[in-house]
Amino acid sequence: MQIAGTDQDEFVDPSDLADPDSRFCEFNGVQIHHKIRDGGQPNVSLERIGSLSHSHQSKRITNFPMVLLHGFGASVFSWERAMKPLAKISGSKVLAFDRPAFGLTSRPIPVDNRALNPYSMMFSVLATHYFIHCLAADKAVLVGHSAGGGVALEAYFEAPERVAALILVDPAIVAPFTSQKDNRSAENSHINNRNSESSLSSKKWNVFGKLLSILTNFAKLVAQVITGIVKGMGQMLNSLCMKVLAAFLRSSITLCLVRVVISMFGRAVLRYAWYDPTQVTEYVLEGYTKPLRVKGWDRALVEYVIAMLTDSKLGSKPPLSQRLSEIKCPVLIVTGDKDRFVPAWNSERLSQAIPGSCYEVIKNSGHLPHEERVEEFVSVVDRFFQKVFGEVEEPLLQVVS
């Protein structure tokens, strides 16, 4: 068994593995690999201009570019077959980029005093908006697969006015277990109970009640102070534990373990993600494993995990599951009916928690419907665009006979 990345001579710079259509740009000190497909009309040669005339044909077109966000362990490669068809139905540009730790994007070593960790969620969010700006668009449709779904949602909450629509493909987001209807019923019941209790207490209000209220408020104040002290101590302990854990994860032992695990189980996990594993050809395996030849891929993967753990401990924002009802833009959730990683029932509950969202299931598909069932996936997106953006008259060029 050959362990991934053990031969130092095999490590190369990401640009050495680039495809002819690969592009690189620098964002916040990171060289980000990306690709673009243009769904606009093809260039017409000067010789043919005289033989062309304009006509109009009804055509669904969004006029919004699309930014595609891959999942954990994936890259721009996972969007390869879907990019051109998506560009065609959108009538605009489609861009996919590799987030740090994946694909052919550079793997910088994070600096403790650096304002923005390249492996953090916020970096991915800001990079997403950077590419929307690069596409010279006021808005874009964000498409996130698996862990990329979380990036898409966070990018929406960062600047909702820049997002025309969200498409979440087998999103790795834990859905809330209570629906909006249940929440509203509980709130109404609570209000009714509170009004009833208020009416009852007003009849029995006396001096002893006032004294009890004062003592209760004092007890609450003491409890808040104690809670604050305990919480502060807990944060200090969490911070200390995180530093110890980060040091262990960055150790040579852990890096070696990462290489062994990827070598032993990487290909098996990839096949497990498909409903039909026979579609995982050598070409697909090569596309997924090529980034393992990039310098520092193992260290970057560890840094990504550390950043993910750190993000979850920050607590500056409520969990995504508590903010789903705040989404105002059109949302499509697509899932494979045979997804073994993110079950379809979770995606369905996620759809129920987002007001007005559309939910589509692609039959005989696993965790990667945009790869395993490309035509069905594009068809689902096309119907969604027709529903939310409608049809417009788009001038087309035709050859005069």
From TrEMBL:
Listed transmembrane segments: none
Top-level taxon of origin: Eukaryota
Cited InterPro entries: AB_hydrolase_1 (IPR000073), AB_hydrolase_fold (IPR029058), Epox_hydrolase-like (IPR000639)
Cited Gene3D superfamilies: alpha/beta hydrolase
Residues in AB hydrolase-1 domain copies: 66-379
UniProt name for this protein: AB hydrolase-1 domain-containing protein
GO molecular function: hydrolase activity
Gene Ontology CC, one term: chloroplast envelope
